[in-house]
């Protein structure tokens, strides 16, 4: 809302009276430079702008800001003029590098109405600042702007307006600490230029004028604005002056790693650098109709500062330098609705920008350790504070060198003090000062600067400088016929960050190998790291999680290996979803060729699932479609049949094939290297130390270990849903979530629950430990030997051995062959050694032993009593205890602060049903817990959600505890009906806004295993559920009938609901889910004229996201029953 609009609404429509009042309003607020209230927008502050509630009449709301040093408080009202920001009610985006606002995408100027709105707001600011202007001049200028926009969809700012806007944009820049100089900004108006040559001349003048022989001057050059139907004028460089970064074949960088990407752009356009450490990059500028042109920066315009130190003579010998003028070149100037994509501007350096960031950041020049060694500092431990001491000395060097050569620079303490003065001035003049604390606080000695202790408010004011997409990413490269892009322009920041820590190692002649992993349980990561230890003997190897991988790096890979598991119904694990989405996008766009990339894929899964290893298969096929070269047939590791042995065999073959492919010599001892690095327990590599003063808090500790948002929930009750005499037992667990924060979910989501191992098993393992290690009151931590010194091993937090065995480690799952191999190395009896090695090497023997015994770690120790397990062995080698996932059985608003689970108690007997009884570690835990806290988290299942269009039919198919998610569905439907006022629709027709809901439910016996029977009956009576179809597999005197059989009997209903765009939801074990797929295809076949159409129809259901599965595995064959 503008000042003029306020006067219109508050003071009426009489033009003369309004002009008089507007003049009074403008005059009243001139002392504040402009009136914040004059620009309030209804939709932003939800303010009723009637006379009774007008902000001008009744005042403005404010935010209190406190200085924690002197307790001084001020009230910010300027923020009420803020533009919308990127933050939302769930998270703050202020720490993102991209900031809280952003430039509009290229291609066209703002729509006329939006442009006029911003032009009016800017014009009012301009005329309020010019006390000599009359109101008539304001209205005259406003009419001129409106006429120009109406005719040309754009208008021209006067030179005075442009200069005012540029200075004001600097004043509004919340991330700049040096804004106290905003009035001194010099403006070079270059809106007249038409060619890249003219742009080059303007840039030369800018650099010469700004440098001023070392007495730097703040300056901005503004090129023509964005226009409809015309390419933007752009300066492609990040800054006017930047050092090149030359990416080497071995992964190293000569020069500035931050500029590798832009250096590659320059090289693609024909520039050839000298390959030095401090080569200034050329200017790349583009103008409408010309495309990008490369111009060398005249050396005589570049003021370089050679770095030396007042005390260390060797510092000068390092050959370091930096340039004098820091000029941001790639931001967009947004003023009065007009956008200027090319507007480079400069101030001068704060010393810590060079000394702490440019020279010492790990992804930049990273000279920290090199300087530390020259200073004789101990770099083996962070406790010596060697990094802090180095940063101070480098900053001293920067200040000393710039001052010695009479080049303008400011230290971070002075900059912070002047900013506090600026903030005080702004508070008096404008009622506030936008400030981003994260950027204002210096990167060194932060807490001894005054800005550290000052509360700040971050918001966006116009005019402004905005981030925008890199010019070379927006440019249509097909316009340049003589430039062939061999690769997609890719960011190498993460690879460079990794490499910067390995610069001291001799890896210069090795081919790069990238190993990606994605896993729900951690097994794929374990396999990937094991593979990495083998490949690093011949390759420059990096192991990285898929969610941390930059997909744009793919075009620069040489050897690329993927180790991944499959989740649910063939989906990627959670940490592989983003990678898969981006990889699929590359395939769809067909813009990347990976013909130079050689790859291999090893997929982990369980053959009991219909989509066995589906994610790995999809990755393999997609890489082939992108023309990458497959080195070796994809490995398929079956959890039910020798997964580790299969992996070991595949890895050895991969290593040989990869070495031969790159003409490398295969190490004669590579098999021994691999097996030793993977399976041998080195007791001298680890040690345990007792620690004191540690207080346990399981929730944050589990959060760190598993990297998930884990929250405490208290068990309110557990109710058995079947009679005691039933062979199966299912319980309803009610959890209270009052203590949990950010614990939101939707129907269909899962709850991940961390169980506690049975104390009986824990006690048996502790009994095998040495007596002095059994002291349960001792809190211990693990240290590992790295390069001759002991460092903390951060796999688990310091804790007692009982806590580790109870809470963190998986001691009930049968040990994998790797663990058996490690135990064999500790066995003193030869018979124990031979038997353990046999189990490791013979897949058939291992699987038979595992299925027959299903042994826990305690069982293995008792079967092989000569093995020895120390505390260090337990804490470093036993796999982590993984969460168990359960479908949530309640709608979010059904019961306030409650989550319900429907859980089948797992129990079975080993040794073909004749051996000891086993219990599910988590289900038995939940069955014994009223009144205790359970640690859990929400796992979102985007593929198992109710249709957004509630009018579509829903077919729910479940067996046993597979009914769990459907309870959340029908509760959600009942709540939605109540919200519409349909509190009881008994004997009434379902509102047309809701589709039919039918349930097919399979269980053992009627009246015994028909859980939620009364709840379902009531829902059918109310019309919320249209019908429930039961299938009983062990009903006395009746033929066995499974849920898929009943589904086929009701084929006409299924066909009708599918024809109405219905959705099918299946929840149950993998065997049942596979049978449902087969039954549905038979039903679809009966509705088609040709047999092959049923497969196509089913695939279409999948493609349209109308067939949903929530599938779980079978714990043990003796527990497997059809329903």
Task: List its traits.
calmodulin-binding; single chain; disordered N terminus; NOS_dom_1; 38 helices; 1123 residues
The whole-number mean of residue pLDDT values reads 84
**Structure annotation, total helices:** 38
Radius of gyration: 35 Å
What's the end-to-end separation, in Å?
66 Å
Q: How much of the polypeptide forms β-strand, as a percent range?
A: 15-25%
Dominant shape:
globular
State the helicity in percent bands. 25-40%
Unreliable stretches covering 5 or more consecutive residues: 1-60, 481-509, 1115-1123
Structural class: alpha/beta
Characterize the main sheet: 6 strands, parallel
Domain FAD-binding FR-type: 708-947
Enzyme class: oxidoreductase
Cofactor: FAD; FMN; heme b
EC number: 1.14.13.39
Structure overview:
With 1123 residues, this protein is an alpha/beta fold. Helices cover 35% and strands 17% of the residues. The protein is built from 38 helices and 40 strands. Strands 19, 20, 21, 22, 23 and 24 form a 6-stranded parallel beta sheet that branches. Strands 31-28-35-26-27-32 form a 6-stranded antiparallel beta sheet. A hairpin with a 6-residue loop joins β1 (63-66) and β2 (73-76). α37 crosses α38 (1093-1103). The longest helix is centred in the middle third of the chain and has 19 residues, at 386-404. It starts with a helix and ends in an 11-residue tail after the last strand.
């Amino acid at each position: 809302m503008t000042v003029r609009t306020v006067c219109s609404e508050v003071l009426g429509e009489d033009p003369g009276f309004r002009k008089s009042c507007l003049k009074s309003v403008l005059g009243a607020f001139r002392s504040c430079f402009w009136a914040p209230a004059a620009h309030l927008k209804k939709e932003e502050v939800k303010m009723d702008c009637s006379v009774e509630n007008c902000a001008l009449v009744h005042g403005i709301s404010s935010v209190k800001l406190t200085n924690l040093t002197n307790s001084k408080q001020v009230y910010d009202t300027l923020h009420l003029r803020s533009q919308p920001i990127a933050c939302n009610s769930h998270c703050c985006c202020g720490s993102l590098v991209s900031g809280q606002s952003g430039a509009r995408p290229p291609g066209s100027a703002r729509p006329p109405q939006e442009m006029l709105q911003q032009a009016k707001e800017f014009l009012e600011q301009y005329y309020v600042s010019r006390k000599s202007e009359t109101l008539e001049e304001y209205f005259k200028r406003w009419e001129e702007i409106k006429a120009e926009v109406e005719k040309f969809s754009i208008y021209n700012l006067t030179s005075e307006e442009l200069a005012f806007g540029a200075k004001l944009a600097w004043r509004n820049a919340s991330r700049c600490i040096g804004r106290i100089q905003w009035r001194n900004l010099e403006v070079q108006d270059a809106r007249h230029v038409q060619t890249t040559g003219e742009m080059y001349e303007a840039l030369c003048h800018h650099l010469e004028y700004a440098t001023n022989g070392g007495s730097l001057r703040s300056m901005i050059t503004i090129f023509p604005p964005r226009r409809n139907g015309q390419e933007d004028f752009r300066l492609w460089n990040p800054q006017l002056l930047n050092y090149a970064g030359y990416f080497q074949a071995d992964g190293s960088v000569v020069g500035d790693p931050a500029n590798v990407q832009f250096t590659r752009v320059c090289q693609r356009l024909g520039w050839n650098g000298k390959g030095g450490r401090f080569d200034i990059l050329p200017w790349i500028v583009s103008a409408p109709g010309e495309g990008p042109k490369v111009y060398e920066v005249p050396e005589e315009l570049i003021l370089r500062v050679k770095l030396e130190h007042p005390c260390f003579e060797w510092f000068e010998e390092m050959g370091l330098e930096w340039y004098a003028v820091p000029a941001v070149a790639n931001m967009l100037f947004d003023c009065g609705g007009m956008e200027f994509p090319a507007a480079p501007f400069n101030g001068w350096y704060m010393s810590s920008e060079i000394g702490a960031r440019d020279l010492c950041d790990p992804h930049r020049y990273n000279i920290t350790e090199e300087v530390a060694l020259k200073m004789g500092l101990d770099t083996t431990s962070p406790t010596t504070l060697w990094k802090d001491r180095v940063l101070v000395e480098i900053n001293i060097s920067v200040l000393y060198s710039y001052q010695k050569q009479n080049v303008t620079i400011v230290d971070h303490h002075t900059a912070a003090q002047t900013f506090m003065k600026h903030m005080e001035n702004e508070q008096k003049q404008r009622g506030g000062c936008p400030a981003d604390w994260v950027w204002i606080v210096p990167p060194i000695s932060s807490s001894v600067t005054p800005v550290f202790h000052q509360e700040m408010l971050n918001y966006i004011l116009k005019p402004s400088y905005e981030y925008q997409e890199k010019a070379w990413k927006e440019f249509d490269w097909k316009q340049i016929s003589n430039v062939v892009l061999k690769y997609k322009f890719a960011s190498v920041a993460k690879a460079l960050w990794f490499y910067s820590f390995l610069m001291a190692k001799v890896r210069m002649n090795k081919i790069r190998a990238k190993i990606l992993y994605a896993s729900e349980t951690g097994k794929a990561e374990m396999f990937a790291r094991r593979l990495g230890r083998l490949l690093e003997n011949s390759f420059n190897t990096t192991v990285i999680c898929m969610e941390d991988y930059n997909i744009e790096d793919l075009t620069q890979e040489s050897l690329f290996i993927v180790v991944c598991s499959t989740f649910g119904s063939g989906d990627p694990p959670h940490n592989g979803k983003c990678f898969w989405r981006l990889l699929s996008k590359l395939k769809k766009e067909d813009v990347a060729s990976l013909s130079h990339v050689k790859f291999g894929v090893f997929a982990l899964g369980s053959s009991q699932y219909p989509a066995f290893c589906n994610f790995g298969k999809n990755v393999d096929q997609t890489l082939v479609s992108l023309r990458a070269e497959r080195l070796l047939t994809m490995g398929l590791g079956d959890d039910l049949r020798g997964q580790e042995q299969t992996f070991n065999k595949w890895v050895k073959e991969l290593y040989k094939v990869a070495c031969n492919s790159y003409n490398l010599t295969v190490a004669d001892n590579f098999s021994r290297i691999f097996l030793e690095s993977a399976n041998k327990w080195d007791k001298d590599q680890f040690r345990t130390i007792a620690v004191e003063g540690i207080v346990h808090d399981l929730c944050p500790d589990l959060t760190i270990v598993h990297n998930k948002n884990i929250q405490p929930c208290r068990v309110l009750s557990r109710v058995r849903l079947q009679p005691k005499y039933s062979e199966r037992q299912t319980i309803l667990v009610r959890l209270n979530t009052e203590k949990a924060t950010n614990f939101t979910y939707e129907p269909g989501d899962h709850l991940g629950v961390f169980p506690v191992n049975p104390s009986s098993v824990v006690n048996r393992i502790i009994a095998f430990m040495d007596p002095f290690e059994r002291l349960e009151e001792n809190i211990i931590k693990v240290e590992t030997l790295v390069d001759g010194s002991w460092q903390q091993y951060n796999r688990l937090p310091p804790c007692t051995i009982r806590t580790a065995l109870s809470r963190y480690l998986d001691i009930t799952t049968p040990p994998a062959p790797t663990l058996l191999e490690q135990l064999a190395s500790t066995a003193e009896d030869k018979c124990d050694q031979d038997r353990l090695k046999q189990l490791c090497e013979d897949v058939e023997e291992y699987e038979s032993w595992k299925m027959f015994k299903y042994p826990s770690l305690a069982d293995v120790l008792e079967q092989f009593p000569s093995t020895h397990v120390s505390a260090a062995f337990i804490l470093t080698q036993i796999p982590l205890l993984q969460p168990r996932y359960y479908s949530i059985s309640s709608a979010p608003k059904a019961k306030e602060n409650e989550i319900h689970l429907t859980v089948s108690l797992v129990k079975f007997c080993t040794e073909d049903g004749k051996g000891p009884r086993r219990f599910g570690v988590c289900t038995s835990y939940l069955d014994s817990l009223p009144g205790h806290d359970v640690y859990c988290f929400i796992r979102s299942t985007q593929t198992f959600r109710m249709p957004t269009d509630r009018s579509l039919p829903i077919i729910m198919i479940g067996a046993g505890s597979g009914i769990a998610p459907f309870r959340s569905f029908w509760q959600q439907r009942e709540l939605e009906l109540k919200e519409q006022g349909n509190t009881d629709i008994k004997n009434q027709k379902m509102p047309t806004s809701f589709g039919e809901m039918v349930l097919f439910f399979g269980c053992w016996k009627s009246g015994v295993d028909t859980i939620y029977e009364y709840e379902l009956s009531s829902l059918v009576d109310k019309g919320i559920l249209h019908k429930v179809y039961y299938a009983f597999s062990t009903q006395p005197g009746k033929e066995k009938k499974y849920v898929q059989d009943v589904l086929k009997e009701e084929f006409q209903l299924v066909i009708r609901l599918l024809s109405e765009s219905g959705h099918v939801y299946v929840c149950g074990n993998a065997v049942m889910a596979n049978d449902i797929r087969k039954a549905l295809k038979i039903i679809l076949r009966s509705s088609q004229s040709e047999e092959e159409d049923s497969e196509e129809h089913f695939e279409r259901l999948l493609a349209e996201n109308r067939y949903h599965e929530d599938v779980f595995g079978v714990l043990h064959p003796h527990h497997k029953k059809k329903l």
